[in-house]
Amino acid sequence: MKGQIQKSEEENILKTIIEKESWEDVIYYIVSLEQLNPWDVNLVKLTESFIKFIKNIEDLDFRIPAKVVFVATILLRLKADYLSIFEEEEDSVEEMLKEDKPFAELGIDPNLVQLGYPMRRAPKRQVTLEELIVALRKALAVRERKEERVKVARRQLDVVSVAEEDMTIKTEKMLKEIEELMQKLHRDKIEFTQIVKEWKKDKVIEKFVPLLHLETDGKLVGEQEDFFKEIMIRKKS
User: Fold this and answer.
1) pLDDT single digits (tens) 103-141
2) What is the fold, at CATH topology level, of the domain defined by 161-235?
3) Which residues, 6 or more positions from 67, have their beta carbon under 8 angstroms from its beta carbon?
4) Which of 9, 36, 49, 69 could disulfide-link to 30, CB 3.0 to 4.6 Å?
5) Alpha-carbon distance 187 to 182, whole Å?
């Protein structure tokens, strides 16, 4: 009975932490639970407990926040290679993140969880809990900026795609208009001024830009004897 109550309390704690989506609270909880030294954090013990925490959350069918998963990947790399991200510049952190591998289901490479490499070199100095938290926040900030750049780039690509689609419609419409006018006038050439309804700057550009595209596509030819003279339009033979 006592064990069931304790398990229920633990589940409530896990649920509360996850609902807050606070990876810092996860680390503080583990440090307290495992009685880790906040002035000299045992990264191996902390990482193992962090992964165990995630697996417990998964067993309870709770949604695991993306930030918690990302912090797990950083901790695993610290455990495996003992990287001192505390003294690295942000660019170095970003380079490290470029090599990120998705882990099975959790977004974590299961091989890293299994390996548990021994320390490859002694730490330069003790790592405090506060330094660890600050370093992880910095890594998350780099990741978020990277994701934002990707989002901006995608939005720009969407705008370009819409613009290209819009220009395709305009060129097709203009080609049809020119062909119909040539047929109506029984001519193989027409003046540019004949397709511009109003001789205003925006109206001229509205017709001139699609004309340039049609020339580039090899569908029409624009001829002008002198710079200020009429532009003659004909179909490319």
Assistant:
1) 344 344 444 433 333 333 444 456 778 888 888 788 778
2) Arc Repressor Mutant, subunit A (1.10.10)
3) 21, 23, 140
4) 49
5) 5
Domains in the chain: boundaries? 2-127, 161-235
Contact 218, 236 (CB under 8 A): yes
Per-residue pLDDT tens for 164-223?
Answer: 557 788 888 889 998 998 899 888 888 888 888 888 877 788 888 888 888 888 888 888
Which residues make beta-bridge pairs with 189?
234
pTM over 0.70: no
Residue pair 76/108 in contact (Cβ under 8 Å)? The answer is yes
Nearest to 90 by CA among 138, 136, 124, 132: 138
Q: What is the DSSP string of 2-25?
A: HHHHHHHHHHHHHHHHHHHT-HHH
Cβ pair 54, 62 in contact under 8 A? no
Q: What is the pLDDT of residues 15-51, one digit of tens each?
A: 665 665 577 777 887 788 778 888 887 787 888 888 8
The residue type at 222? G
User: CA nearest 71: which of 92, 57, 51?
Assistant: 51
Could you give the CA distance from residue 170 to residue 167 in angstroms, rounded to a whole number?
A: 5
**Adjacent-strand bridge partners of 191:** 232
Answer yes or no: are the C-beta atoms of 224 and 230 closer than 8 Å.
Answer: yes
